[in-house]
Amino acid sequence: MIKRRLFAFFLLFLTACDELKTPSQGLSRGENTLNRAIYSAHIQLDPHFVKVSADGAPVRDLFVGLLAFDPTGKTIPAVAKEWFSEDHKNWLFVLDENARWSNGEAVIASDFVKSWQRLADPKNASPLAPYLVYMELENAKAILNGELAPEQLGVVALNDQTLQIQLHRANPRLPDMLAHTALLPSYQGQKPDATHLISNGAYQLEQAERPHIRLSALEPETPFQQVHYYLITTAQDPAEFDLVQNPRLESHSLGVKLPRLCSYFYEFNFRDPHLQQKALRQAIRAMLSPPEISRGLGIPNHFVIPKTLMTMPPRQPSPINIEPLLREMGISPSNPMRLNIVYDEQDLHQKVALRISNGLSQSDLFRISLQEVNFAQLLAKRDKGDFQLIRGGWCADYADPLQFLAPFHSKSPDNKSAYANPQVDSWLEQLQEKTLSFAERESLMLRIAHQLEQDVAVITLFQPQYLIIRSPDIVGIDSRNSSETIYSKDLTRKPLKKEKQ
Question: How many CA atoms lie within 13 A of 361 on its CB side?
Answer without folding.
Answer: 12
